[in-house]
Design goal:
This protein is of the alpha+beta class. 26% of the residues lie in helices and 21% in strands. Strands 5, 6, 7, 8, 9, 10, 11, 14 and 17 form a 9-stranded antiparallel sheet that branches. The chain has a 5-stranded mixed sheet with strand order 19-20-21-23-22. It starts with a helix and ends in a 14-residue tail after the last helix.
């Protein structure tokens, strides 16, 4: 059986990782607070089955948290859920380099119901209000926004926020520096509306890949590689775009290139933990909605000061993309990466200047738009998951005059709260305006040559090692010294 949202829900339920909420809940705040509390408690994925005002709409269910735990990514890849994170990342690296082309199919469950024209009503879908100050109900919180390059036909399926404006309009976050923004710029030059398809609810590989800045592989190819089977695509009803044939809901529409059609979007509680700036933005005019019988809507809570689905995707997916990016640039010795809140890269240093080359490779890629504002490079003995170890590396390795590099890239995230609001006017500048920072916390080989008197090291030996025989003697005589017995867990 081909994979889709329902097979994923069944898998999570079989693993004891799903909670069905049958009690009546309100879309206006209550759903968000339930998910927030579940996140705090380390809870599972959730399905809401009794939502206020949606008892009799054609969509009555909402699924959240489908990738809320790191072990779910192992399950998504067909691995045991206790597979270590480094092994998951290495398999993702491999899958991102081995695209599997989608296949075209004639029909599928997504065509079970079709509504067009005056029958279109986005309020039939139980999109919650996710944060108290949100400008409205954000229908686009976890999905694939499908567009196609008008020149070469290349697909993009991204994760971009969108707010319901009326029963057939969605104002959307669309900036030129991101995938569909480049497509929209071309349609603007042609003075033609851009076709768009919004895919809600399918295999978890959809939301995962849509959230990542993939290179050298498009999202449909990456989804196929993650699943190890082709994505079954079917043509939309009102345009030539293709979408997964077993998706739960597909919203079809167009975006006018005319700025006079733009409408207010925001504020929205973003992944950075702050509300976005309300602004007039492009609008999807919805022409058609297709959906499965008894469809399940897919959404996600972001920006609430704890690990959410989008953050999990960054933690699991970004290291694989970053390592592959550096591999393509011929940079050796990259051992591990922590991508947030700053990008920390652990290397086996092989030549002087390697950290600068690493930063240049990241800043010269798609990652530079919303990621890699600050890059820190450390050597292999540093535990990059330990803040104390990172501070220690900074103290013992950094010469502020030589090791701190500020690069005036003049582009970055439009949601960077450290910049002035005016710097984030992405519709004016194409992205945010900002600089980048490299912290080179590796030893400078010009000032720290290898010294024979230190056993071939560049720094003196550490005094943290023990007098081996004396340490064993102390353990044996510990109670004799008058100390209590060491607990088994600390022996």
């Amino acid at each position: 059986m081909s994979r889709d949202l329902r097979t994923w829900i069944a898998k999570l339920e079989a693993e004891g990782e799903l909670k069905r909420i049958k009690a009546p809940v309100n879309w206006d705040g209550e759903i968000a607070e339930i998910q927030r509390k579940a996140l705090e408690d380390g809870g599972p994925a959730l399905i809401f089955e009794n939502i206020k005002d949606h008892e009799n709409t054609w969509c009555r269910k909402l699924f959240v948290g489908g990738l809320i735990k790191s072990k779910y990514f192992a399950l998504m890849l067909g691995l045991p859920k206790d597979t270590p994170r480094p092994d998951v990342i290495q398999l993702l690296r491999k899958r991102f380099k081995e695209p599997i082309e989608p296949k075209r199919v004639a029909t599928g469950p997504i065509k079970e119901n079709i509504v067009k024209g005056k029958d279109v009503d986005l309020y039939q879908i139980p999109a919650p209000k996710w944060h108290p100050l949100d400008g409205g109900r954000y229908i686009n919180s976890w999905l694939g926004v499908v567009t196609r390059d008008p020149d070469d036909g290349t697909y993009n399926a991204g994760q971009y926020r969108g707010m319901i404006v009326s029963k057939d309009k969605i104002s959307v976050y669309l900036i030129p520096a991101q995938g569909w923004g480049a497509h929209f710029s071309k349609y603007q030059r042609m003075k033609k509306p851009m076709p768009v398809a919004l895919v809600f609810g399918w295999d978890p590989s959809l939301g995962f890949t849509a959230a990542l800045p993939l290179s050298n592989i498009n999202e449909y190819q990456a989804m196929g590689s993650i699943m190890q089977e082709p994505v079954p695509l079917i043509k939309c009803e009102t345009n030539e775009l293709e979408v997964p044939a077993s998706a739960e809901i597909v919203v079809e529409g167009t975006i006018s290139p005319d700025p006079n059609t733009f409408e207010m979007e925001g504020p929205f509680g973003e992944a950075n933990g702050l509300y976005s700036r309300p602004e007039k933005r492009p609008v999807i005019k919805v022409d058609c909605i297709t959906y499965r019988n008894d469809p399940i809507f897919r959404g996600s809570l972001a920006g609430v000061g704890m690990v959410t689905e989008d953050m999990q995707c960054f933690f699991m997916g970004q290291p694989a993309i970053m390592m592959n990016t550096m591999e393509l640039q011929g940079i050796p010795g990259v051992l591990d990466i922590v991508p947030m809140p700053i990008v920390v890269v652990k290397i086996r240093k092989m030549y002087q200047g390697q950290p600068r080359q690493i930063a240049a490779a990241l800043w010269g890629s798609k990652l530079a738009v919303n990621m890699a504002k600050i890059v820190m490079v450390v050597e292999e003995e540093v535990d990059i998951n330990n803040p104390r170890a990172l501070f220690g590396a900074m103290l013992s390795r950094i010469d502020p005059e030589k090791s701190i590099v500020v690069y005036p890239l003049n582009m970055g995230s439009s949601g960077d709260p450290a910049r002035a609001l005016e710097d984030g006017v992405d519709l004016k500048y194409g992205s945010g305006i900002g600089s980048k920072l490299l912290i080179d916390a590796t030893l400078d080989w010009t000032t720290h040559p290898v010294r024979e008197e230190w056993g071939g090291r560049r720094l003196p030996p550490s005094p943290t090692h023990h007098f081996t025989e004396a340490a064993e003697l102390v353990k044996k005589r510990w109670q004799e010294y008058g100390f209590p017995e060491v607990s088994p867990s600390k022996k």
